[in-house]
Design goal:
heterodimer; A: 239 residues; alpha+beta; 5-stranded antiparallel beta sheet; 21% strand; globular; B: 516 residues; FAD/NAD(P)-binding domain; 7-stranded mixed beta sheet
């Protein structure tokens, strides 16, 4: 697989490009996790485990949907199939991404993965219309990305709240893989149920008013989806 | 007489005073229920000595125990990580640009339970000891951080301690102690100490006209030993005949280049009549020369220091610190205990200053009786343990000198003269000539330097333990080779996952360290 190379969309350079529609999202078939927004927890929770992991570069927590149990293993988006009734927005947005614009944060820079195999000049959805203006679909994606950015910031605030109030703890995940023996997954974190139950009335009210409870319980409920991944894995034949 | 001990007054606002105050507050009280009042009095007139910038890994446990957030500490005290002390030129006088060096690492040599030492001794020595038994040497040499940004606070890939700005550290502890641990802080200068007829301290009279009464007094007043030495007349046992260094000259060196790599270890370099320390903090270096004024002049000492620092020293002033090596005859007398420089001092070769403060303050918190009834026993026991601990520290410091093959100055000649060495050290060295040092040579847990510390210094300095006659006792050569391979793999793995020391400090300042 070629490495992702996100560059700002350029009306001149990219004017004839089209994007093939891939409803199988095969670009993630080698990723074992994808970022998930707190607002997506409810919809995602019946499909895959939602956990918290630390980012390698910053050590800061991010919420992710776990899609595989091994490096580069994706059990959900695999073999040109989608075994989920929910597609996380961070998968849907591809091959686009929002670039950071330092001066004015309310405006995004639309970027595109120049190495994406979805790009071509004959097939699929056009990026710019015949007048060189962003196409309808490009405008939609801009709206989606703007929305993702805002919700991502809200997710960071949600996670920071969990950390500051000692509500996160390392998740001890031990899976039994039959003949292959037991497998321990390291570096995953989850909400500490005991700490959650010991919150004061005042803290409970804060969580309630911030609408954090649905996300928290969706996350906790989603942990039973480890079994689903195991189930998918037992039928899984690597390509 | 049997009255409760509920009020403790600590005299002195340096690192010793504040560290002791925080440890006592945490051990004797809990957040909601302050049963013991701890008051720290500090003079506005007497500045803290402000050196002692090196620590050992126990500092991590201490800081966590007193409830400090590691990121805050790193940001506010210009902290860097320390994984080792690198000893340069201690074995040989440098010749035509060749410098001998070895690491005293914080990771113990046999973390896996298998001691490679005898195999290393019996094998041809193709590599230095530290690099042979631990992968931490590679991390040090590459100036890498001991931890990753994803590691939670106080945890790392390898053992580590800190380099810190002592003045900032005192202020940081003061803020924490007053805001979070209920310590009372008063700016007062002692004018007189009033004793009871039985010789214990009744109260302190201050220049400000205030009276400080307490059930127990802790002397953290530094070299002046205001209570223990001056008021209670407890004598001083000089160890100047064993440890010859009696002066230091120090300077703070700003970085010419703020992006320069910072060594994640202290560099201790031997010179003609002493040694220099070189500690890289995040904003500056702390550099000093500890020397014997009986073997060199103060002017020559300053010259050595300036030569060592180089051009960067040109416009900088140096501060001279006279030092008296030894300890008090008693560390606990009646209702007073001395912690820090007021109790004793040895040259800062192994970061013993803050280390002994931590150890003594914890011991004191443990030993302090709830009422005056237990005082006699507590005093006796505390003094016996403390004296033993100090003697063992002196043994260990002397070890660095007695193994030296330098003969370039009377300083080094006098240092290897057996008459200047403690008998307890000479006995062990004699035994270790044909016998492997083992845990049982360090029977007390109050010895702050244990087997592993000795191993790094002994074998870093070419000490020969001859096992040829008993080589059949060490038949697991294959297992040893496996261990060595494992260590090499760990070293490679660590290089992939660890970033540079400077980058990590910058990252921590930007992102902080997670509590979990």
């Amino acid at each position: 697989m070629t490495a992702i190379n996100m560059i700002p969309l350029d009306a001149a350079k990219h004017k004839n490009l089209r994007i093939k529609v891939d409803r199988n999202y095969s670009h993630v078939s080698h990723q074992n996790m994808t970022p998930l927004l707190a607002s997506e927890f409810l919809a995602a929770s019946t499909n895959f485990p939602i956990v918290f992991v630390k980012q390698q570069e910053t050590g800061k927590f991010k919420s992710v949907a776990l899609l595989g149990l091994d490096t580069e293993e994706n059990l959900v988006f695999t073999n040109n199939k989608v075994l989920s009734n929910y597609i996380p927005v961070n998968i849907r947005r591809y091959p686009f991404a929002a670039g950071a614009k330092t001066a004015d944060e309310s405006e995004i820079v639309l970027c595109i993965d120049e190495n994406s195999t979805l790009l071509n000049e004959t097939e699929g959805v056009e990026i710019f219309d015949e007048n060189g203006k962003p196409s309808e679909s490009t405008q939609k994606i801009t709206t989606l990305l703007t929305d993702i950015l805002a919700k991502d910031a809200a997710t960071d605030i949600f996670i920071a709240f969990l950390v500051e109030n000692d509500l996160l703890q390392p998740a001890q995940v031990k899976l039994s893989l039959g003949k292959e023996g037991d497998k321990k997954l390291n570096g995953l974190y989850k909400v500490d149920e005991e700490a959650l139950n010991e919150l004061s009335d005042e803290e409970v009210l804060t969580l309630y008013k911030r609408k954090y409870f649905p996300a928290i319980y969706a996350h906790l409920a989603s942990l039973s989806q480890f079994n689903r991944l195991l189930q998918l894995k037992s039928n899984f034949t690597p390509q | 007489m049997n009255s409760p001990i509920k009020n403790i007054a600590i005299v002195g606002g340096g690192t010793a005073g504040w560290l002791t105050a925080c440890i006592l507050a945490k051990q004797l009280n809990n957040a909601r229920d302050i049963t013991t009042t701890i008051t720290l009095i500090e003079s506005a007139e007497i500045p803290p000595i402000g050196v002692g910038e090196g620590t050992v890994p126990t500092m991590r446990q201490t800081l966590r125990m007193i409830g400090i957030n590691e990121s805050d500490f790193i940001q506010e005290c210009d902290v860097t990580f320390k994984q080792s002390i690198k000893f340069v030129d201690w074995l040989h006088t440098p010749q035509s640009g060749h410098h001998h060096s070895y690491h005293h690492l914080f990771n113990y040599p046999h973390t896996t339970g298998f001691d490679l030492t005898p195999y290393w001794l019996l094998d041809k020595r193709d590599k230095n000891y530290a690099g042979h038994v631990s992968f931490q040497e590679t991390i040090c040499d590459l100036h890498l951080s001991p931890k990753r940004i994803t590691d939670k606070e106080y945890a790392g890939t390898v053992e580590y301690a800190y380099h810190l700005d002592a003045a900032k550290f005192s202020k940081f502890l003061a803020k924490h102690g007053c805001n979070n641990l209920g310590i009372r802080h008063q700016i007062l200068t002692i004018e007189d100490v009033i004793l009871f007829p039985d010789g214990s301290i009744e109260k302190l009279l201050t220049k400000e006209g205030q009276i400080v009464s307490a059930d127990f007094f802790v002397d953290c007043s530094g070299f002046s030993s205001r209570l223990m030495g001056q008021a209670l007349n407890v004598g001083f046992v000089s160890k100047g005949h064993q440890l010859l260094v009696n002066n230091a000259i120090a300077m703070q060196v700003p970085y010419a280049d703020q992006d320069k790599e910072i060594p994640p270890f202290t560099i201790a370099t031997a010179h003609e009549a002493g040694w220099t320390w070189d500690i890289g903090l995040s904003k500056r270096r702390g550099v000093g020369y500890a020397y014997s004024s009986n073997h060199t002049s103060h002017d020559r000492a300053e010259e050595i220091l300036r030569n060592y620092v180089g051009d960067e020293a040109i416009d900088l002033s140096a501060r001279r610190i006279p030092m008296e090596v030894g300890y008090r005859e008693k560390f606990w007398h009646k209702n007073c205990v001395a912690i820090g420089l007021s109790a004793g001092f040895v040259e800062p070769l192994e970061a013993t200053a803050l280390l002994t403060v931590e150890a003594t303050a914890k011991l004191f918190a443990e030993k302090l009786p709830t009422t005056t009834r237990g005082m006699v026993y507590a005093e006796k026991s505390f003094n016996a343990i403390s004296r033993y601990a100090w003697d063992k520290v002196i043994d260990f410091i002397k070890l660095h000198y007695i193994l030296s093959q330098r003969r370039d100055n009377d300083f080094w000649l006098d240092n290897v003269n057996p008459e200047t060495a403690p008998q307890s050290l000479l006995e062990k060295l004699d035994y270790w000539k044909f016998n492997l040092p083992t845990q049982s040579d360090f029977a007390s847990k109050y010895e702050v330097f244990q087997l592993e510390n000795y191993q790094y210094v002994l074998y870093g300095m070419d000490f020969m333990t001859d096992l040829k006659q008993i080589s059949q006792r060490y038949p697991h050569i294959e297992l040893a080779n496996k261990e060595i391979k494992k260590i090499q793999q760990h070293a490679l793995q660590a290089q992939k996952t660890l970033v540079s020391h400077r980058d990590m400090i910058n990252k921590i300042k930007q992102y902080g360290i997670s509590k979990i």
